[in-house]
Amino acid sequence: MAKLSDAAIVGVYQTKQGILTDKTQPSVWWECVRGACEDAGLSVGDIDGLINDGPDGVGLRDMMPAPGLAELLGHPIRFHARNIVGAASSAAGVNLAAYAVAHGLAEVVVVASAVAGQARGYGSANRDEAVATMAKLSGPYEYVYGTTRVSDYATLAMRHQYEYGTTAEQLAEIAVAQRHGATLHPLSVNGYRGDITVEDVVTSRMIADPLHLLDCCAINQGGGAYIVTSADHARSLGRHAPIAVLGYGEGHNHIDPNAIESLTEFQGAKVSADTAFGMAGVSRDDINVAGISDHFTIGVLLGLEDAGFCKKGEGGSFVDKGGTSLTGRLPTNTSGGFLSFSHAGMCGIFTLIELVDQLRGDAGERQVKDASLAFFNGVGGAQQAHAAAILGRV
Predict the structure, then answer these.
(1) Residue 136 belongs to domain spanning
(2) d(CA 54, CA 71)
(3) 226 and 163 assigned to the same domain
């Protein structure tokens, strides 16, 4: 019987993250795809599967990206699928890519995300325009009253503080650890700014109480891609250790925040993690490195708790004193995450790529010693949709 682990991530690529208004979205998409193919030892012509969007999101090419890509490649695309897990969609596409390869529906599948040029709305290089667009991503019955994505997460953070005594300093520890990782990644959007301290975070401008400026993700442009093929094919290429999806799960729990019983515990996140760990047959203690969606610092804390790395309410003590740093109990978002590496487009793809680099042993100064198993958590919206994966070398 075919298994997800019969497929493997074999190539990855990322652009420098920042403002890419001098490039078009299709040119960045192709740069990422070519780079991932080159990293794998494959050619672009080998691609016969596509997950999510292609290189041009206009008209029919947006509605049917696979025929558009097939036309450009000069041969049929054998498999195309889309999944919707918000910002985690591209990373969560690894499940569909692995499924297609493991079941013989495609041999080489590409997943890419690119935001560049004069993009409008969420992908805009204009901060005010991007913020205005993101404000409408709040609950459908709330944003008309002025709620925003940051106020959504601020509500979750405030409730967690109220119920469990979590402190602003503990949330700040997450931002501090991730900024250090970004300083060690040459492509990061904030690494050049240097390290920050807990004091820097808690004295930065208040955005939505209790979240300060440095508790919040970046708004920028950038691109990334990964290639999935069969594990046997990946081994034959001999470029890198193949990285398999050992387990995967999703959980979707609400749209309207008023429809959930708790603002500190999200069953979708728990379901997705439990499914992934159950499929992989490993425990939380086996995980060496993690990537957890961090649109805001509170997201990491919630993700650790809901995935079972600590009990509900103990996230603050878990992250305290560098718990998620490169030398902490669970190194998390080692490239800087959304807070300091990149929050461009379907930004979960960068979380996934960093885990691949870690498992390959290619993370340079960020490398976690003896990393062999990784946990991925992707979040769409304000904890509304969740994806989880266990990755490992095969």
Answers:
(1) 123-218+248-393
(2) 11
(3) no
CA nearest to 187, candidates 65, 14, 63: 14
Is the bond leading into 210 cis (omega within 30 degrees of zero)?
Answer: yes
Same domain flag for 178 and 116: no
Range 62-80 burial, b when 16+ CB lie within 10 A, else e = eeebbebbbeeeeeebbbb
Question: 92-129 in b/e burial notation, b at 16+ Cβ within 10 A?
Answer: bbbbbbbbbbbeebbbbbbbbbbbbbebeebbbbeeeb
Provide the total of helices (H) and of strands (E) in the chain, helices listed first.
Answer: 14, 11
Same domain, 24 and 137: no
Instruction: DSSP letter for 170, please.
Output: H
**Is the distance from CB of 225 to CB of 50 less than 8 angstroms?**
no
Q: What is the full per-residue pLDDT of the chain (394 aa) written as tens digits?
A: 789 999 999 999 999 999 998 999 999 999 999 999 999 999 999 999 999 999 977 777 788 999 999 999 999 999 999 999 999 999 999 999 999 999 999 999 999 999 988 766 556 566 677 667 766 666 667 777 777 889 999 999 999 999 999 999 999 999 999 999 999 999 999 999 999 999 999 999 999 999 999 999 988 999 999 999 999 999 999 999 999 999 999 999 988 877 888 999 999 999 999 999 999 999 999 999 999 999 999 999 999 999 999 999 999 999 999 999 999 999 999 999 999 999 999 999 999 999 999 999 999 999 999 999 999 999 998 999 999 999 999 8
* Three-state secondary structure call for residue 312: coil
27, 46: one domain: yes
Classify the C-alpha dihedral 133-135-139-144 as positive or negative.
Answer: negative
Is the pTM higher than 0.85? The answer reads: yes
CATH number at residue 116: 3.40.47.10
Give the number of other CB atoms < 10 A from CB of residue 369. Answer: 10
Domain end residue (candidates: 209, 243, 277): 243
Number of domains in the chain: 2
If you search the block for the tokens 């958590």, which residue do you land on?
377
Residues 131 and 113 in one domain: no
